[in-house]
Give the backbone structure.
Amino acid sequence: MTVTPHQGKGQCPVVGCRANLLATCPDKLQLRSPPGHGPVVACKSGCQAFGTDELCCRNYYHSPQTCRSSTYSQFFKHACPATFTYAHDSPSLMRKCSSPRELKVIFCH
């Protein structure tokens, strides 16, 4: 999925990922349907899979100093470098983009 802002002010990058994450999703992050034995239908984040404060960057881990990347967020970052993979991630695409008049969302490439 990619999101492309149009007619915004400043630098407005395309954000998203073209990788097939279902094919390489770590076992612990896989969502299968039917549960347990069906095909992989989604690849959950570490936060969604485990719900810990550390992986969800909440409570003590709510600041840029304590919220860090994990092996799970690194899986997504490796596959999709131009995305945010945890709460305080700051990918190289960080730019100032304001007031786009339109967002073009592409779900499949």
